[in-house]
Design a protein that fits this description.
The chain is of the alpha/beta class and 209 residues long. The chain has six helices and five strands, in the order αβαβααββαβα. A five-stranded parallel β-sheet has the order 1-5-4-2-3, sandwiched between helices.
Length: 209
């Protein structure tokens, strides 16, 4: 089904994580991240759901070992499909929008090593700089997994999965986006953010997502 642009939460705050908005409005801090982590600690508001009273208070002889079933807490494995957010941007502004989204993700608690950025057009300046030292040094940074990693769409098939994947549709052939977007969806653990022209993205993806 085609992507419907989300309310420009990230986009609005993306315009200003580094500076206060000029018009005086304090942009609300949207959270592109669905929360702490999908497998976060169980909610404290459910006492007794998984923890029965200690067996000592029930007469052990009368009650024949009524141990709680460990299969009860099976809620965390709910969302296997990552959440998808679309940030409308022109091809020229898609990379900046992606950078703003990354800044917001880091500001809201994401670790740098959890974020992967894929570009469909010109490579990100960081990627171009690191590749100037050779492929081995560049991919060593990827394997270390301790910082945001930037990859070209042509290398999207080689990158490992990360909780958050940001795609900047910043030009390039439609074939590059058509290849990168489904791959990015497969690499995203919990959240996929796509920055670009909604019409182009929907026409490339069609009903693929």
């Amino acid at each position: 089904m085609p992507l419907i642009p989300e309310e420009p939460q990230i986009h609005e705050s993306a315009q200003g994580p580094r500076a206060t908005p000029a018009n005086g409005r304090t942009a609300p801090t949207p959270r592109p991240v669905p929360g702490p982590r999908p497998a976060a600690p169980p909610r404290p508001g459910r006492p007794g759901a998984v923890r029965p009273m200690p067996p000592a208070q029930r007469a052990p002889r009368d009650t024949p070992v009524a141990k709680p079933e460990p299969s009860a807490p099976a809620a965390p494995a709910a969302s296997s499909t990552p959440q998808i957010q679309l940030i409308p941007a022109s091809a020229e502004g898609a990379l900046d929008a992606a950078e703003e989204a990354v800044d917001l993700l880091l500001d809201t608690g994401r670790a740098p090593g959890e974020v992967l950025v894929i570009t469909t057009g010109d490579p990100h300046p960081w990627a171009a700089h690191e590749l100037s030292f050779g492929d081995a040094a560049y991919w060593a940074q990827h394997d270390a997994g301790d910082d945001v990693f930037y990859a070209d769409a042509s290398a999207a098939g080689r990158v490992a999965s990360r909780p958050v994947v940001v795609v900047a549709v910043n030009g390039g052939a439609d074939a590059a986006a058509a290849t990168a977007l489904p791959l990015a969806l497969g690499r995203a653990g919990t959240l996929l953010i796509v920055c670009g022209d909604p019409q182009k993205i929907n026409s490339v993806l069609g009903a693929g997502v």
